[in-house]
Amino acid sequence: MRALKAVVLSLGALCVAAFGVLVYLVVAGIGGKDASAPQAATTAPPLAGLRWNDLSLGQPAGTRIVGVVASGGLLAIHVEAPGGAGSILLVDPLSGQVRGRILPGTSP
Fold first, then answer.
1. 87: β partners
2. 44 Cβ partners below 8 Å, 6+ apart?
3. Less Cβ around it within 10 Å: N or C end of the chain?
4. What pTM was estimated for this model as a whole?
5. Angle subtended at Cα 15 by Cα 12 and Cα 18, rounded to the nearest 5 degrees
6. 24 exposure class (CB count in 10 Å sphere: 0-12, 13-18, 19+)
7. How many angstroms separate the CA atoms of 92 and 80, rounded?
8. pLDDT in tens, 20-36
9. Which residues of 60-86 are buried (b: 16+ CB within 10 A; e: fewer)?
10. Per-residue DSSP letter, 107
11. 54-73 confidence digits (pLDDT tens)
């Protein structure tokens, strides 16, 4: 009977110790990370070093933006010049630079 009592007390102590380790790991895992800040906030947001009023598409005065679509990491900006000629500018949103231009009716 004494052996059975020793086994039960040993297993009980082992269960309490395992539960304590589990609680520690959960608390350490949650407390190690700042839950209020998302992980992506450690990287610089797009256009972090640029001011919005400093961006220019290099188009003549009177050109209007007809539409903007995000495509493959670039912004496709449909612009229309005052004379009615339209084109699509491919702009890198990270640097603010025009990476390409699509002109209708022309061949390379």
1. 79
2. none
3. C
4. 0.48
5. 150
6. exposed
7. 20
8. 988 888 887 776 555 45
9. eeebeeeeeeeeeebbbbebbeeeeee
10. -
11. 667 778 888 888 889 987 88
